[in-house]
Structure formats: structure tokens, C-alpha cells
Design brief:
With 467 residues, this protein is an alpha+beta fold. The protein has 7 helices and 13 strands. Strands 8-7-12-13 form a 4-stranded antiparallel β-sheet. The protein has a 3-stranded antiparallel β-sheet with strand order 3-4-9, with no helix packed on it. A two-stranded antiparallel sheet has the order 1-2. A hairpin with a 5-residue loop joins strand 5 and strand 6. The chain is globular. The two termini are 39 Å apart. The relative contact order is 0.13. Bound molecules: 2-acetamido-2-deoxy-beta-D-glucopyranose (NAG) (12 copies). The site of one 2-acetamido-2-deoxy-beta-D-glucopyranose has 4 residues, from loops.
Length: 467
């Protein structure tokens, strides 16, 4: 915002109001001085210089944060609340307006001042998770710029201007981390050390695209469940920026920017499952989280967007959590980067058509998953866990839908399943873009606002590059 000196501006306006013949000013002739308004400081942080796996001693604390008493093994399902169908929704007004142009109802609309403070354990743990995510993004965006040379980026079709955009995205993260830290107070989680699985610029971009997707989806999953709606408001205004980052990384990868009509939301524990493995070490007094780490679900034939025929792949990923694509085995002539044909070329662009779809309904998808009990996350101090029985379904979590397909030929932590044919609405194939695939022991009916009811039935969590 431009900080005009209000006194100058007021004088100017009153002058204009009084003069009879107002001259038409087509060129500004006066230079106003613009005094900076108060600039709030960002949360102090230092750039992480060391990266790699955790090498320190075994942690003294392990497992997610919990309480001595846990009230029940899961939240029982209930019918809709008593008032769920009360409001007539007929286009008429049903109560006097509290003020002109102000319909009755709403939350946080009674005039009480917002305070932007978390109000429950649910709020704290959710915002703290989002903060862990903002910190890793801040580091990841800087790391890529330092790890790969300008030359490396150019080979991947990304210019100095594109590198600046990544730098800018890192700066956005400083703001997001500061905002969330301020809303949590002094115990807010600090920045950690990280370990990334990628070796080339194209792999890095694919990883960023997937990481920002689970960051975004992880927030959409809890945003409307927060007790503190004022906190939710500010978080919303940062997560929409993150959503744009996700889209830009897709464009950097030469993917169709937004194939979905709706962006997906996932429970916090799924986001933490996908985030924690890349955090190697946190400072001594780091605030821990309550969320569950599920075993990894590895997509063996994860579609590879770096290939011309991206669906025709096997075992071409750099990690088993996000199943980020590997560039290593792509031979000359198989890469879509420098292909010239429209529909085949996938150089960075606003958008590309893809003649060979990355995936399609009816595709056989090969899966492999871990046993629970593995150490993951900061200082290897979290333990993967599941309360589900051995999995029999794959749940495809995309847009507004959760659809189950049966696992076939279930072997020792291995199976395959068939990509479903379903639409969110007519004309909108639900399985498209960067989506989530989880294994479950039950085909429980859940929808976006109660998707976490599935958690006790989830065995493993992964990501699928369907488009
Ligand atoms: C971190 O590094 C970037 C350059 O990659 C620099 O612009 C920024 O100022 C550094 N931040 C801190 C806190 O040192
Ligand atoms: C106004 O709403 C807030 C919640 O947004 C509530 O805490 C407060 O008690 C309400 N005040 C009145 C006077 O109803
Ligand atoms: C694509 O073209 C760029 C620029 O000519 C080159 O540096 C790069 O090695 C090529 N990459 C592939 C995968 O063909
Ligand atoms: C952790 O310790 C550091 C250094 O002593 C301090 O700056 C920071 O505020 C502490 N953080 C928490 C969450 O207690
Ligand atoms: C994690 O490990 C490092 C290095 O051993 C140690 O300095 C730090 O205190 C540990 N963090 C926690 C939360 O235990
Ligand atoms: C792409 O690979 C699939 C197998 O995954 C194959 O059925 C299809 O014919 C291939 N398409 C092209 C254009 O090579
Ligand atoms: C995938 O490839 C790696 C080596 O790149 C190998 O160790 C692993 O066994 C392969 N997995 C499968 C299921 O083929
Ligand atoms: C891109 O794909 C759409 C949908 O299949 C098609 O209608 C359009 O003609 C394609 N455009 C180009 C330039 O290939
Ligand atoms: C995903 O959407 C893109 C763009 O509309 C389309 O070209 C592609 O065929 C879709 N893929 C699937 C699997 O539906
Ligand atoms: C998917 O469903 C649509 C609409 O029912 C149908 O037209 C299409 O052929 C189906 N695709 C596959 C691969 O079964
Ligand atoms: C998983 O969590 C449940 C519930 O907290 C606990 O009873 C169980 O012992 C844990 N399993 C493992 C392998 O840690
Ligand atoms: C997908 O979600 C939409 C919107 O909630 C719903 O109407 C539709 O029935 C769902 N489709 C499937 C296959 O679950």
C-alpha cells in the first residue's frame, strides 16, 4: 500500500473540492514522498547449509505426541447434526437483518474483534504442521537454486527469470512461516535440516510439484475444521499462494497446469506421512506433532511426466513416499523435453496438450508398501504406524471424491489394482493431476469434510501422478 502522507492528501482533496474549475490533470506533476508504513519483521531464520540423512545418535523421544489417556480407538460415526436440514434454502430472508445489507447468520460476524490465536489442540497441531511445511518449502526452493547451476536449469528449459520466480517463492515462504509462527507463539516449530531425494533439475521440479500439492491438500483438509476461524482466514490467504506455486511447478514441468475442476483435501496425518521423511534433523527443543506417520505406499509404475510415453514405465522413481519421477533411465529420444511435435513436447510452458496421457481409466497400477514400525522424520524420532488390518482396497483420493478399487493378487506387501473410471461431475474425470492413493482395509464412504474418518482404516499413503 502506498503510504501517502494523509495530511498532504487531505489538503489536496479539499483544494480540489473547493476550486470551481478543476483543471484536467493528465500528467502527474507533483512527486509525493512516500514514507514507509511500519514494516513487521519476519521470523528470524538462517539458511540451512547442511543437507542429507540424519546421522546423530538415537533419539530419546520417539513417536507422535500423545496423552496418557486416549478416550477411544476411533471417532464413532454419527448421523447429520440436528440442525443440518433446518434452514429452508428458498431464497427468502428468515430473520431480521442485523444491519443494512447484512444477512443474519455467519460465524465471526457479530462484531467481536478477531485475535488470530489458535483455540484448541486441533488448531495448534494443524497450524504447527502447516508451519513445518512452510519451513521445508523455504529451504527446498533455496536448495534447488544452490544445488543446480544456471546451466543445469537452462538444460531443463528454465531461464534466469524462472530461477528468480523460484527465489521469489522462497521469499513468500518466509512470510508464511512468520504468519503461522505469530499465530502459534514462542513454541512454534523451528526450521530443521532436510534431505531431498532428487539429482537433476527436472526431478527437483517434479518433487516441488508433489511437495506443494500435499502441502496445499493438507491445509484444505483441516481449514474448515479449525476452531479459530480468524486463524483460518489468514491461513487461507497464504495457502492460495501455495496453490499457485504448485501450478507454476507443473508449468515448469511442462504439465497441463490444472486438469482438475476441484483441488483435493487430505487429513493432516497423510500430509505429515509425506512430509516427515524429508526432514532429517530438528533443533533440541523442537515442538513435536501429534499426527500419525503411515507406512509408505510406493507406486511401482508411477507415470513419469519426463517421458514421451509417461504411462509406459516401471520402477522409475527416486523415493517411495511421493514416488517422484527419476530421469536417470530416460534414453535419448524418450524424453519429451526437446521433442518438437505439439502434444509430445513438454518443455516449460503455460500449458501443453499431452497426446499420450500419463494415465487412463483401466490402467493396471502396481503397488508395494512398507510394514509399520519404521523410524522416520526429524532425528528418526517418529515411528510409522497403522491401526488397519492388512489392506484390501486402494482409495483414489482426488477432487471431491474417494473411490475404492479392490487390490488384486495381494502378495507380500505387493498388489495391483485398476485405475477407476469416474467423474466428479459430467465432463470432469476425477482421477487427473497429482492425486493421493492410499491403501485401506475397508471401503468406507467418506466425503471431503469427513475424510479423516478413514484414518483408522488406512494402511499406507502415497501419491499418484495421474495427469
Ligand atoms: C538465504 O539465501 C538467499 C539466497 O539463496 C538469500 O537471498 C537470503 O537472504 C538468505 N537468507 C538468510 C536469512 O540468510
Ligand atoms: C460473538 O462471536 C464470538 C465468536 O466469533 C463469540 O466468542 C462471542 O461470544 C460472540 N459475542 C456475542 C456478544 O455474542
Ligand atoms: C534439451 O535441449 C537443451 C538445450 O538445447 C539441452 O541442453 C538438453 O541437454 C536437452 N535435453 C534433453 C533431455 O534432450
Ligand atoms: C529453542 O531454543 C532456542 C535457543 O535457545 C530459542 O531461541 C527458541 O526460542 C527455543 N524455542 C522453543 C520452541 O522453545
Ligand atoms: C536432533 O539431533 C541433533 C544432532 O544429534 C541434536 O542436536 C538435536 O538436539 C536433536 N533434536 C531433538 C529434537 O532431539
Ligand atoms: C505407451 O505405453 C503403453 C503401455 O503403457 C502402450 O500401451 C502404448 O501403446 C504406448 N503408446 C505409445 C504412443 O507409444
Ligand atoms: C527397482 O529398482 C531398484 C534399483 O534401481 C531395485 O533395487 C529394486 O529392486 C527395483 N524394484 C522392483 C520392484 O523392481
Ligand atoms: C488440445 O487438446 C484438446 C482436448 O483434447 C483438443 O480439443 C485441442 O484441439 C488440442 N489442441 C491442440 C493444439 O493440440
Ligand atoms: C487430464 O486432463 C487433461 C487436460 O484436460 C487431459 O488431456 C487428459 O487426458 C486427462 N487425463 C486423464 C487421465 O483423464
Ligand atoms: C469411462 O466411462 C465413460 C462414461 O461412462 C465411458 O464413455 C468410457 O468408455 C469409460 N472408459 C473406460 C476406459 O472404461
Ligand atoms: C500403533 O499405534 C497404536 C495406537 O496408538 C498402538 O497401540 C500400537 O502399539 C502402535 N503400533 C506400533 C507398531 O507402534
Ligand atoms: C464425486 O463427488 C461428487 C461431488 O460430491 C459427487 O456428486 C459424486 O457422486 C462423486 N462421484 C463418485 C464416483 O464418488
Amino acid at each position: 500500500m502506498v503510504g501517502f502522507k494523509t495530511s498532504t492528501l487531505a489538503a489536496l482533496l479539499s483544494l480540489a473540492a473547493r476550486s470551481a474549475a478543476v483543471p484536467v490533470v493528465s500528467e502527474p506533476t507533483t512527486t509525493f514522498t512516500s514514507e514507509p508504513a511500519i514494516t513487521p519483521p519476519v521470523r528470524p531464520h538462517t539458511n540451512v547449509t547442511e543437507h542429507g540423512p540424519y546421522t546423530g545418535p538415537s533419539p530419546t523421544t520417539t513417536g507422535a505426541k500423545t496423552t496418557t489417556v486416549v478416550l477411544a480407538p476411533s471417532i464413532p460415526a454419527l448421523p447429520p447434526g440436528p440442525d443440518a436440514f433446518k434452514y429452508p434454502s428458498d431464497g427468502n430472508l428468515h430473520a431480521p437483518l442485523p444491519a443494512p445489507y447484512t444477512p443474519s447468520g455467519g460465524v465471526g460476524t457479530n462484531g467481536s474483534a478477531p485475535v488470530y490465536r489458535v483455540l484448541s489442540d486441533f488448531d495448534y497441531e494443524s497450524i504447527a504442521l502447516a508451519l513445518y511445511q512452510e519451513w521445508i518449502e523455504l529451504d527446498l526452493f533455496h536448495w534447488g537454486l544452490a544445488r543446480f547451476s544456471e546451466e543445469d536449469f537452462l538444460e531443463a528449459g528454465l531461464t534466469a527469470e524462472d530461477r528468480f520466480l523460484i527465489e521469489h517463492m522462497a521469499n513468500q515462504e518466509v512470510g508464511h512461516a512468520t504468519l503461522l509462527s505469530n499465530m502459534l507463539g514462542p513454541s512454534a516449530p523451528q526450521m530443521c535440516k532436510y534431505n531431498y531425494p532428487v539429482n537433476t533439475v527436472r526431478e527437483y521440479i517434479d518433487f516441488c510439484q508433489k511437495l506443494t500439492r500435499y502441502g496445499e491438500a493438507g491445509v484444505y483438509g483441516f481449514l474448515n475444521h479449525l476452531n479459530a476461524h480468524d486463524v483460518g482466514q489468514m491461513l487461507l490467504q497464504s495457502i492460495t499462494t501455495e496453490a499457485r506455486q504448485q501450478l507454476i511447478f507443473r508449468q515448469f514441468e511442462g504439465l497441463f497446469p490444472m486438469p482438475e475442476w476441484f483441488q483435493v483435501g487430505i487429513p493432516q496425518s497423510w500430509a505429515w506421512t509425506l512430509l516427515a521423511p524429508f526432514i532429517s534433523e530438528c533443533p533440541a527443543n523442537q515442538t513435536r506433532l501429534v499426527w500419525q506417520n503411515y507406512p509408505a505406499l510406493h507406486i511401482l509404475n508411477q507415470p513419469n511426466p519426463l517421458r514421451i510415453n509417461g504411462s509406459n514405465v516401471f520402477n522409475e522413481t527416486v523415493d517411495k513416499y511421493t514416488s517422484t519421477s527419476s530421469e536417470e533411465e530416460i534414453e535419448e529420444g524418450e524424453s519429451c523435453l526437446n521433442a518438437t511435435e505439439v502434444g509430445v513436447n513438454c518443455s516449460p510452458a503455460i500449458t501443453h496438450n499431452r497426446t499420450n496421457s500419463l494415465s487412463y481409466p483401466g490402467r493396471q497400477v502396481f503397488l508395494e508398501w512398507d510394514e509399520p514400525g519404521q523410524l522416520v522424520g526429524p532425528n528418526n524420532s517418529y515411528v510409522t504406524n497403522t491401526t488397519a488390518n492388512p489392506p484390501v482396497f486402494a482409495a483414489w483420493v482426488s477432487q471431491l471424491n474417494v473411490t475404492y478399487t479392490p487390490l488384486q493378487e495381494i502378495g507380500h506387501n505387493k498388489a495391483w489394482t485398476i485405475q477407476p473410471n469416474m467423474s466428479t461431475f459430467e465432463g470432469d474425470p476425477a482421477v487427473n493431476g497429482t492425486i493421493f492413493l492410499v491403501l485401506t482395509d475397508l471401503d468406507l464412504y467418506v466425503t471431503p469434510y469427513n475424510i479423516s474418518m478413514l484414518n483408522p482404516h488406512v494402511y499406507a499413503v502415497g501419491m499418484y501422478q495421474s495427469g
